[in-house]
Amino acid sequence: MKIDSTYPVETPDGIELTLSLAGPIPRGGAWLLDLLIRGGVMFALAWALAWMQAIGFAILLITWFLINWWYPVLFEVLAHGATPGKRAAKIKVLMQDGTPINWSASIVRNLIRQVDFLPLFYSTGLVAMFCNNRFQRLGDLAAGSVVVRTHRDLVTHTDLGEGPAEPLSVPLDAEEQRTILALAERSPRLNPNRAAELAALLRPLTRMEGSEAVARVQSWARALRGTSS
Question: In the chain, what is the greatest distance between 2 CA atoms, to the nearest angstrom?
Answer without folding.
Answer: 75
